[in-house]
C-alpha cells in the first residue's frame, strides 16, 4: 500500500490527503496558486471544495494583512462562491 501524505488546511485546520487540497505558495511577489503541488518554495494548503476556507476571515490566520488579496485570488481561480471554476488535477 502506497503512503499518502496528509496536509492540514490553513483555514479550517482539517487534515486531508495532499491530493485533495490546493497548494498556495508564498513568494516575494505575493501568493501563487500551485495546483500541481510541485513548485519549489514554502507552501500552505486550503480546501478547494469548501467556500468557508476561502473567506478572508479564515485566511487571515495564515496571510495576515494580505488575506483579502489571497481570498480574491482563490475566488477567481476556483470560480467564486460555489467553487465550480477550474477543474483540479486528480491526485
From TrEMBL:
The record's InterPro entries line, in alphabetical order, gives: YlxR, YlxR-like_sf, YlxR_dom
YlxR domain: residues covered: 7-70
Q: Which Pfam families match?
A: YlxR
Superkingdom of origin: Bacteria
The molecule here is called YlxR domain-containing protein
**Parts forming coiled coils:** none
Amino acid at each position: 500500500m502506497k503512503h499518502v501524505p496528509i496536509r492540514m488546511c490553513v483555514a479550517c485546520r482539517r487534515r486531508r490527503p495532499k491530493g485533495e487540497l490546493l497548494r498556495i505558495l508564498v513568494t516575494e511577489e505575493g501568493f501563487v496558486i500551485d495546483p500541481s503541488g510541485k513548485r519549489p518554495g514554502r507552501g500552505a494548503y486550503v480546501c478547494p471544495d469548501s467556500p468557508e476556507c476561502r473567506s478572508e476571515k479564515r485566511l487571515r490566520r495564515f496571510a495576515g494583512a494580505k488575506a483579502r488579496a489571497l481570498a480574491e485570488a482563490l475566488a477567481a481561480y476556483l470560480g467564486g462562491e460555489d467553487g465550480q471554476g477550474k477543474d483540479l488535477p486528480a491526485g
